[in-house]
């Protein structure tokens, strides 16, 4: 008994360490993405390009991202997850490092390697939450996904402070882009040692693509994809251009920022955003879980639709406070900082629960396909996001080089992008109507899959045991061998028929 308990404890800690490695790798990947956005002034100066040309980085990366998701959607279940995860992380590290070697006249080289890094990061970005869902269940999975969101928020926010320091320093233009790859390289060996190959039955593999198409019949899943698409359209555009917008606002009206330097302004905004996320995340998760399971402050008030209700309320409030952020930036630093805090606080609802809700409403066997498909659709439809805002800024600014015109062009373009935040909130509000029914159906399908797999595995074990007896009978009795061989054929055909019926 003691040895069994020790083995269980060891397995538990291995899961926790593996989850921590995956979460930090996701954070490093997101940091690199935000560092690229924050380094736009350095990239523009190095390659001597305009805003619309700069936005091509985002456009090409989005195309590459979508391509990798399409391949993963079709082939992801047929490739060993350990190999796919470790090789994609290694490829991402190499591509990021090579992109920094581009010469001033070789902008296409930089875009090529950044596109490759986007392909690799998209692959392990899909696999990380799926692996976490394999490791944990129910409330533990919620905590793991909450930690994933918290680390991603933290690294995404501090990247702005770090890159702002590089922007105002005399270091090489690629310096902020060479932080995440070495740190990720340190985590790759323990990841390879800890992650195990997940055995998948033939029953699962034969049905994987067919089941991935059935995802389109899940109404709450489709609405979540719509919400993610609208929200990501604004997020991609705003994160790509916000550092440049803030730099322009700081240059245009330094008195509004109380004479603070640009790195200090970025650091304050980063701290405010981080504080909002860190406070909002546990509060939102506590309320949502209490309401969903009928515990703590919501004792005996269980509501199976608690998750989408909390997300929709948080999204609707985010619509209002984010509008205040855009209008007050460059006008009132205190008001914009307070609004930024509440934006991060309220948006924590979607960040903490959005991924969890999607994993709940789809069957376990389709989780990888669901995450890939949702990100594929989102990636394709948000390809022109940064280009859209970049073209608007050039349109509003025309040929003017006046700093005020540049500031107003950024603000007006981002206000156009705000419309997608509103559409995101409306989409999540409609999820409430279908979530409970879809979650119940997914749970029933998981139970049916478990029974079918047990039956198929039992039949396969019978075949293997009979094969062993056949070898012995072939030596001692040829006639008994022929009889056993005939039964083996019947059993195998029965197994294949069972898989085809499923």
UniProtKB/TrEMBL annotation:
Q: Cellular component GO terms, alphabetically? A: membrane
Q: Write down the SUPFAM superfamilies for this protein, in alphabetical order.
A: MFS general substrate transporter
> What transmembrane ranges does the database entry give?
16-36, 56-76, 83-102, 108-132, 144-167, 173-195, 216-235, 255-288, 309-327, 333-361, 373-393, 413-436
* InterPro entries linked: MFS, MFS_dom, MFS_spinster-like, MFS_trans_sf
GO molecular function list: transmembrane transporter activity
Protein location? Membrane
Source organism, top-level taxon: Eukaryota
**Keyword Lyase found:** no
Q: Where is it mostly found?
A: membrane
In what way does this protein cross or attach to the membrane? Answer: Multi-pass membrane protein
Q: Where is the Major facilitator superfamily (MFS) profile domain?
A: 15-439
Q: Which UniProt keywords apply?
A: Membrane, Transmembrane, Transmembrane helix, Transport
Q: Which family does it belong to?
A: Belongs to the major facilitator superfamily. Spinster (TC 2.A.1.49) family.
| UniProt protein name | Major facilitator superfamily (MFS) profile domain-containing protein
Q: Which source organism does the UniProt entry give?
A: Pristionchus mayeri
């Amino acid at each position: 008994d003691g040895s069994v308990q020790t083995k269980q404890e060891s397995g538990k800690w291995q899961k926790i360490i593996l989850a921590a490695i995956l979460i930090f790798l996701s954070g490093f990947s997101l940091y690199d993405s935000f560092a690229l956005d924050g380094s736009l002034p350095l990239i523009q100066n190095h390659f001597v390009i305009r805003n619309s040309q700069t936005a091509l980085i985002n456009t090409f990366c989005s195309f590459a991202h979508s391509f990798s998701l399409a391949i993963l959607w079709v082939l992801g279940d047929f490739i060993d997850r350990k190999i796919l995860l470790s090789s994609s992380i290694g490829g991402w590290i190499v591509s990021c490092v090579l992109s920094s070697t581009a010469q001033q006249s070789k902008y296409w080289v930089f875009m090529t390697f950044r596109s490759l890094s986007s392909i690799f990061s998209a692959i392990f970005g899909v696999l990380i939450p799926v692996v976490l869902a394999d490791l944990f269940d129910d409330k533990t999975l919620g905590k793991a996904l909450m930690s994933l969101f918290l680390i991603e928020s933290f690294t995404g926010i501090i990247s702005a402070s770090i890159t702002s320091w590089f922007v105002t320093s005399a270091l090489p233009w690629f310096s902020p882009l060479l932080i995440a790859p070495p740190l990720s390289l340190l985590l790759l060996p323990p990841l390879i040692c800890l992650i195990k190959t997940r055995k998948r039955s033939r029953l699962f593999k034969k049905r994987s693509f067919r089941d991935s198409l059935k995802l389109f019949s899940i109404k709450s899943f489709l609405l979540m994809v719509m919400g993610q698409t609208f929200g990501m359209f604004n997020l991609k555009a705003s994160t790509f251009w916000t550092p440049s917008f803030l730099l322009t606002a700081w240059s245009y009206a330094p008195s509004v920022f109380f004479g603070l330097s640009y790195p200090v302004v970025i650091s304050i905004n980063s701290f405010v955003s981080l504080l909002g996320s860190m406070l909002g995340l546990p509060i939102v998760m506590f309320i949502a879980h209490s309401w969903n399971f009928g515990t703590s402050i919501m004792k005996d008030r269980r509501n199976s639709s608690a998750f989408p209700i909390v997300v929709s309320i948080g999204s609707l409030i985010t619509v209002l406070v984010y509008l205040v952020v855009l209008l007050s930036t460059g006008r009132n630093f205190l008001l914009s900082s307070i609004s930024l805090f509440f934006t991060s606080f309220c948006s924590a609802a979607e960040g903490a629960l959005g991924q969890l809700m999607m994993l709940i409403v789809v069957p376990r066997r389709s989780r990888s396909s669901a995450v890939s498909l949702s990100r594929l659709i989102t990636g394709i439809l948000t390809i022109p996001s940064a280009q859209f805002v970049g073209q608007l800024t050039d349109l509003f600014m025309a040929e003017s080089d006046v700093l005020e015109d540049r500031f107003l062009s950024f603000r007006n373009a981002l206000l156009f992008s705000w419309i997608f935040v509103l559409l995101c909130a409306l989409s999540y509000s409609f999820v409430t109507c279908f979530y409970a029914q879809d979650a119940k159906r997914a749970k029933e399908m998981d139970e049916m899959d478990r029974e079918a797999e047990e039956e198929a595995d039992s039949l396969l074990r019978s075949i293997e045991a009979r094969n062993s007896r056949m070898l012995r009978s072939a030596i001692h009795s040829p006639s008994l061998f022929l009889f056993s061989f005939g039964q083996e054929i019947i059993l195998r055909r029965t197994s294949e028929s069972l898989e085809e019926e499923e």
